[in-house]
Amino acid sequence: MNTKRLGSTVNHVVGYGAALLFVIPLYVLVNLALRPADDLSSALTPTTSPTLDNLSAAFTQSHLGSAMINSAVLTTVSCLTIITFATMAAYPLARSTAKLSNATFYVFLVGLLLPFQVALLPLYLMMRDLGLLGSLWSLIIYYTGLQMPLAIFLVTTFLRSSVPVEYEQAARIDGCSDWRVFVHVVVPLLRPVLGTVVILNSVAIWNDFFTPLLYLTGSHQETVPVVLYQFVGQYTTEWPLIFGGLIISMTPVLLLYLVFQRYVIHGFAGGLKG
């Protein structure tokens, strides 16, 4: 009993410590975002006169509204493209028994091991030659290729472990074509893993700073992280405005997570089986 109590105590201490590590940065974010500009006290000191001026100033001075529209369009189109192509590629990979199919699946997995920095310069030059620099299409193409291996891995393993092939066989006996079986039977059963793919990619794309900075600099289609970077100067950084803008920009992602949260654990766990 003493051993069990000790183990339980250690687990609680570790759990609370880990939670504290996540809560402190969030507290600093909210605390500084609501702090008046003339308050120069420590970031850990609670703000005594909270104000929303930093949020409104960040929204107007950085043109955050148009940037959020650009980020929303970029994230939505990229995620739809990723789940469309990943689902269409994963289905034959999961159902085919040919050796070539299995080899192709492992080729996609190699994409999980390659750092994107390796192809950064060649991709930039290719986008320049195609005249896509300064356009959201350059990022849509980039994110689709970058995130496709993980999406194909999750969807393929989810199909193999969590979607019985008997459903498809029954639909074919009833006269459904392969395309109707895929659209009306398989895709609805993939909602948990597709929700996981949407969440993972939405967060990654919405928060990405380096690639939009490289591809969209000087254009009118800059994303949220890029426009917030204007508050970072050579000698001074306006942290209250940055944190105020971050609070505004993180709201859509949080809402998206609340919508898909029931799919995330199920889909991710199912996608890692087998």
State the fourth-level CATH superfamily of the largest domain.
MetI-like
Percent strand: under 5%
What's the shape? Answer: globular
Question: What is the count of helical runs?
Answer: 12
Number of E-state strands: 0
Return the string of H and E elements.
HHHHHHHHHHHH
The domain count comes to 2
Describe the structure.
There is one protein chain. The chain has helices at 2-33, 53-61, 64-95, 99-110, 120-130, 136-162, 165-173, 178-189, 191-207, 210-216, 224-228, 239-271. The chain is an all-alpha fold and 274 residues long. Helix 7 (165-173) packs antiparallel against helix 8. The chain is built from twelve helices and no strands. The radius of gyration is 23 Å and the shape is globular. 75% of the residues lie in helices and 0% in strands.
Keywords:
274 residues, mainly alpha, MetI-like fold, 2 domains, 75% helix, globular
